[in-house]
Sequence to fold (356 residues):
Amino acid sequence: MRLTRKFLFAALSITISFHAQATGFRDFEGWHVGCDNTGACRAMGFPLDHGLPRGTLTILDRQAGPEGKFRWLRVGPMETDATVFVDGKKIADLLASAFEEGDDKTPQALVDQKLIAAIIAAGLDGKHLAFDADAKENERISLQGFKAAMLYIDEQQGRVGTQSAIVAKGEKPASAVPAAKPVPLLRLKEIPKKGKPDPSLAKAILEFHKRFAKKDECSNIAEGEPSVISSAPLDRKGWVFEVDCWRAAYQAGTILYMFTYEKNHAAAQFAPVEMLNTKTGRVSTTRGRSLSNLGFETAAQIDAFHKGRGVGDCGTSESWRWDGAVYRLADYRIMVACGVDADEDNWITLWRTREK
Fold:
């Protein structure tokens, strides 16, 4: 393959607003909460050890929309036929009939709405929640930030001033609450599953990387060391490349590049990737950002996992799908609390999509 020496270099950093939006992630003194781009919210509470979450956890979900059903997930000590205590006072018995059935990925959840409402009401001004009258301090769920977390859900779901609010109750009927937002549909493009690029393409990508990758993104890779980690075809001529960016003790970062053809010119550029801001919940398209522990078998789907610590029990998990123009964010999950008993399926989801 013969390439012209003239390369078309894309803009180094472009941000394009995307219309859908989540609400971001918040930490209210030991209660973590986030709402996704449909309006569904999840709150997590933990025992606190010197202000840091430790051990087990409890999870409360609330759907968006006027009905706004609750689900209190059975995680850790919340077994069926247990009893809930707030500040040592018995609040409710958790009978097996109050739980829905779960599976390997979805734990059993308490779905009795009146029972959940009673537990929430008792906890708003409480200090700790336990599932045993004699629970030790490290087994008690702190309620220090519970009320603030519930108010945040009221605000994000548009419940303030309505009868369906948890904290900010009012006279307006539940019907005044906005409906849940639809799950965005990703329209994907079929691309080749296998292929091998001409060696000259990788050389051009590395030249581009050395010239334009930001130093603060790629901080500890020596100038002569960057290499192409993997590559995959985007279409009949185009390719995506993954290039070394930074390395740490238990993870590494890479940058995605594209090589496409426009008329008689070969174009090396940063791959456009949608990124979510966990503070604002906004999703925007960026170029030249590093991604942690990237993995992909084909260019159709890429996944990244930034570890909060070496064992990988906390951090952020993201996945993207190629739609022919941009890597669209397909899923985003976060777990800030390290050292708690929660697998990735129970992390807080800030972004979700569906595929056609």
About this structure: The radius of gyration is 24 Å. The longest strand covers residues 252-262. Confidence is low (pLDDT under 50) at residues 1-19. Residues 185-355 form one domain.
